[in-house]
Amino acid sequence: MLSQPAPTGNFSDQFDNAIESKRDSDFRQSLQSLEKEIKLRYGEYENFNRHLELVKEITRSLPEFEALASCYTSTLKVSLLKDLQSRLDDKFRIAGYEKPKSIRCPYCQIHIARRWDHFLPSSKYPDFFLYPPNLIYVCEVCNSDIKKNGLVCHPRSTLSPYHDDISAVSLLQCDVQVADEISVSFSICDDVVDGYIAQIARRHFDSYRLNDKFIAESGSKLADLMREHSFARSIIGRPMTQPELTELITGHLDQVGTTLTGPNHWEYSLWTALSGCVALLGFLENRYANL
């Protein structure tokens, strides 16, 4: 549920290079016969970029399908992916995001992205096999979930980090409850964007089991907050005031805002909710008194 900078450029040349790389004359001839159609398909992809589940599967004869499915030599594939990785790294550097080599998966926000996922699956859309706007840099866990569950279908249940831009709205929200312990839960606030995107976001949230994942990840952040409060109390030697706690939480919120990608990251939502929790200070003070 994170937005990422989309690849840009003229991608038709890549298909031309794939044709030239084939030594098998039959494969090359099959690809040449498809060249005009493939480039039209690239245009179709761009026209449907916010409704990619409506892009129809390619219907071709078996030889042509096989030629498309295997049109990239391993050397060409590695070269193109390295180029795409470099472009992605540059865009993150320019945007001032976290170090490119530790880019978080845009689907789950939890794990480090390590694999290129075909948003429209290559088994059904071989014409977009190495079309950069169809390649999303994701973690191994989400990549596996997609393969098992087919999450890019109609109705679509995966947000595209390139085309479903939610970076300007707070779609993800966190609720904090304080009793004997601090408990948190996450949900989708679906009245801040149009209904189409809200429905996909809700299905994405449920399909990737994000509430459970975000709750699990939040445990370490809550433990950090309690340790920081205890340390501050031991230094100042008196109860912490609400403005002092707010300043402590705001420091975390500012750090998240400058190192992650927008308001829909679970950490941003967590610290925002904690900053507005009026019962939090009393809980922390009671906990410190009972240490």
Notes on the protein architecture:
The protein is mostly helical. It has two domains: 12-149, no CATH class; 172-190 and 209-289, no CATH class. The protein is 52% helix and 8% strand. The chain has ten helices and four strands; from the N terminus they run ααααββαββααααα. α2 packs across α3 and α8 (242-259) packs antiparallel against α9. It is elongated. The model has no long low-confidence stretch (mean pLDDT 81).
User: Low-confidence segments, ≥5 residues, pLDDT <50?
Assistant: none
Number of helices: 10
Residue-averaged pLDDT, rounded? 81
Measured between the Cα atoms of the first and last residue, the distance is 39 Å
Based on helices, strands and strand pairing, what is the structural class? mainly alpha
What is the rounded Rg? Answer: 23 Å
Strand order of the largest sheet: 1-2
Largest sheet composition: 2 strands, antiparallel
Strand content bin:
5-15%
Number of DSSP E strands: 4
Number of spatially distinct domains: 2
Give the % helix.
40-55%
Helix-strand pattern, N to C?
HHHHEEHEEHHHHH
The dominant shape is elongated
